[in-house]
Design goal:
Layout: H1 7-10, H2 13-16, E1 23-24, H3 56-62, E2 74-77, H4 79-91, E3 97-102, H5 107-115, E4 118-123, H6 134-140, E5 145-151, H7 163-175, E6 179-183, E7 205-210, H8 212-215, E8 223-226, H9 230-243, H10 249-260, H11 262-286, E9 290-291, E10 300-301, E11 304-305, H12 313-324, E12 326-327, E13 329-330, E14 341-344, H13 350-364
Parallel strand pairs: 1-12, 3-4, 3-5, 5-6, 6-7
Antiparallel strand pairs: 2-8, 7-8, 9-11, 10-14, 13-14
Amino acid sequence: MRYVRMPIEVESPEEYGYGNIRNNLSESSIVDQSIGSLGLTVPDLTLLYGEHRGSERLRGLIIEDEPGLRIEDVLITGGAAGALFIIATALLGADDGLVVVRPNYATNLETPRAIGCEIKFVDLVFEDGFALDFDRLAAAITPRTRLISVTCPHNPTGVMMSEAELRRLVDFAAEKKCLLLVDETYRDLALTTKLPIAASLGRHVISVCSLSKAYGVPGIRVGWIISQDPALQEVFLAAKEQISICGSVINEWVGEEILAQRATFLPPTLTEWRRRLARVATWIEGEELLEWVAPAGGVVCFPRMKADPPGGTEAFYQRLLQDHGTYVGPGHWFEMSDRYFRLGYAWPTADELEAGLVGISAALRG
């Protein structure tokens, strides 16, 4: 493994310093929650080694809307990042191949690079609405390909597949005798009908998700892998045990309590998300220097500058932060041109979002 720090982490708000940013529009989750905001009182928990697969209650709550899945199909991990690391290191070696969509969350790209496997990219194109092109996907498959990796809803664009497209992808992977990884971290934040858990559609499909984005608790580091293949789950469990043995008893308890109140937590969250998205859509419509593909899930979008701003993109980002106190995720975080930027609209306050949009418009003009 040859590790290299990812730009999205080197330049993250937590590394730069939250206190140095007035309007943080770079975050990819809803607003951070607290023990108090969630209405929780932590009980006197025994701080023992927990069940290696994760608590049964937590795993049961994760799959409660998918009756075809079993508790045994779920493995709790240290966030979605931990899940993606386990999957990549467990399934890919130097002789194996990966086909992965781009742009993408950096861990989906950098861990396979550190492993040294063959990587073929399927680039999602703005002019195609960032939709997955099955012809490009088919062309990327080689005899070494073991794993196909996608995200849905997509980060950073917010684009979603339809259920028919997801099922087509599942069938395609089966036909090519490949495993399919679906990073569905934003699944609970779908504007349209929520898709089924991808892993419920076939034994060769692996789902990854977490509580970080939709529930605003990245600090508890609770994610999971779902697979109906017992042999795969045994390998993933072995990897987890060698990394951390088990999860945190406290963190898993918090996760249980969050999912137990999902039915009351999500509706107001989605209402506010739609209101924020409508505001961003109105701004984009009136901003002649930008264009976008409207998102259908998640809490981020990926606007594109129609032309280089005065002084170029580097000068734009400097002006935006120094003169307007506003931070967004530049395109190079996702191996794209810096004329793109990821804009998160659910983490800042409404006033900060408004000020940030004004700042972006001003910085685009020099």
